[in-house]
Amino acid sequence: MKLANSRTESFHGYFVTCFVSIVVVLIMFSYYFSSSLVSFSSSKFEFLSSSPSPVATSELQRTVQISDRQIQAVHLTASSSDGAITTVNRIRNSTTTVIKKLSTVVLRKKHDLIMIKHGLARARASIHKAASTRNISVISSIINNINDDDYVPNRAIYRNPGAFYQSYLEMERRFKVYVYREGELPITHYGPCKDIYTIEGRFISEMEHGAKRFRTSDPHRAHVYFLPFSVVWMVKYLYKPLTYDLTPLKQFVADYVRVVSTKYPFWNRTSGADHFMLACHDWGPHASKGNPLLYNTSIRVLCNANTSEGFNPQKDVSLPEIHLYGGNISPKLLSLPPSHPPRPYLAFFAGGLHGPIRPILFQHWKDREDDMIKVYEYLPKDLDYYSFMLKSKFCLCPSGYEVASPRIVEAIYAECVPVILSNHYVLPFSDVLRWEAFSIQVDVSEIPQLKEVLMAVTEEKYRILKENLRFVRRHFVLNQPAKRFDVFHMILHSIWLRRLNMREMDR
Ligand SMILES: *[C@@H]1O[C@H](CO)[C@@H](O)[C@H](O)[C@H]1NC(C)=O
Ligand SMILES: *[C@@H]1O[C@H](CO)[C@@H](O)[C@H](O)[C@H]1NC(C)=O
Ligand SMILES: *[C@@H]1O[C@H](CO)[C@@H](O)[C@H](O)[C@H]1NC(C)=O
Ligand SMILES: *[C@@H]1O[C@H](CO)[C@@H](O)[C@H](O)[C@H]1NC(C)=O
Ligand SMILES: *[C@@H]1O[C@H](CO)[C@@H](O)[C@H](O)[C@H]1NC(C)=O
């Protein structure tokens, strides 16, 4: 069987499949539950343990009984030392009180951990069941359960619609995030809400002030822990322009992790595996190097999802880049004319000569007097960027300095089929969405033949791609406050999936 990742290397081969043994392990030592893997990329899920969800109560009772016995044992020891009875009684009394208090705390923590593990096991089991069902009426009943009037599901855009819907419902039912309170404004608890890195600030803000359903103020009840710093603000306040010295960013991140891992037990418990950070700035991955465990073990939610620069899709999350000029989406993209006006241009791009791919695009297509392919470095002043998108069938989305491009989301809004031109880029939400249903990927080596490649897309295929864009749009929309299935919830769902796939290792 395949392992999702090797984050818990030392525990490989130690699979606990039956809960009686888990209870013993739990009381004797630290304990460890093997977990099943949830993956939407394959039609069937892989399991490490056979039975994921037995009943919790009997196990809890057992824990309580054993702890009571321990308390009685202490009683007996205390009362056997005869003599000055009142003193002994006093000692016994205070010992008992202390032990009771201690055991209440210990029990409560263990109880919380057990509840979390059982909840996750149940979620995995129900997702697994939904994923493997081929029965349309069962899938429909899951979808109807979503209870969201304006939602018209379209199965083609999902790898496994049953699994996705079930997993989404489980997330709503259970998922709890703890946001660390440490750190001061503006670098923590706040982020940019305008311009190109918007998503960083909007996510932090939603997590801090909205998202009540997914927050917990009790860190013992959390599934994941959020490190709420903004790399964009680190660059603004800590970086010295033109030095290209990213040490201050790494230092900040290192300090933040040091503070929370010294003050709380949670980081050390999993070596950071159930902690996450989020950054849209190109330098997000560099900043995360400030702590080796954050880089290699934690969930990093990044726009710059470049697998050649350490992005690991098993544990990291690809974050869509959304450009909000002045904090808003262009009104032109907000609501499209229902009449489907003609799109005279085959393909459109306008943007700076950034990164490794655009020079190739410009070399072959820039400023060519081609009626169908419109590629500009600087868009002439009399032409409007979004109008161009709305008049083009395909929108070219080449990587710039970083792999992600805000054009992808803009193209989705404009119902202009995105043409992904990138290397080593993990597309956002690609563990649940079938990008091939609403975009085209063109290999960088095929840029010289771009026109032929796009001309070869049949009318019928184009019609389906475009129609699917309409369905996928809601997953990329930023709402304030967030709405079900929008981009905030999709990001959270990606984190939830990583947490489901994490192999438990707790003390
Ligand atoms: C033990 O403490 C409780 C409350 O603190 C008190 O009511 C009780 O009398 C004490 N018992 C003895 C034996 O000291
Ligand atoms: C599909 O599921 C429904 C509800 O559980 C059941 O009534 C029906 O017989 C199933 N159909 C098939 C083909 O298994
Ligand atoms: C976590 O581990 C670090 C490094 O070993 C240590 O300095 C820190 O005190 C630990 N934190 C807690 C809460 O024990
Ligand atoms: C991540 O782990 C690899 C392999 O153990 C190691 O070589 C690398 O230095 C680590 N990265 C960071 C940023 O610590
Ligand atoms: C992705 O990472 C590789 C390796 O560092 C780099 O060569 C490439 O330019 C990066 N891609 C982008 C678009 O930044």
UniProtKB/TrEMBL annotation:
One matching Pfam family: Exostosin_GT47
Gene Ontology terms for molecular function: glycosyltransferase activity
Membrane topology: Single-pass type II membrane protein
Keywords: Glycosyltransferase, Golgi apparatus, Membrane, Signal-anchor, Transferase, Transmembrane, Transmembrane helix
Keyword Glycosyltransferase: yes
Transmembrane feature ranges: 12-34
Location in the cell: Golgi apparatus membrane
Domain Exostosin GT47 residues, every copy: 172-456
GO CC annotation terms, alphabetical: Golgi membrane
Keyword Membrane (UniProt): yes
UniProt main location, coarse: Golgi
Family from the record: Belongs to the glycosyltransferase 47 family.
Entry protein name: Exostosin GT47 domain-containing protein
Organism: Dipteronia dyeriana
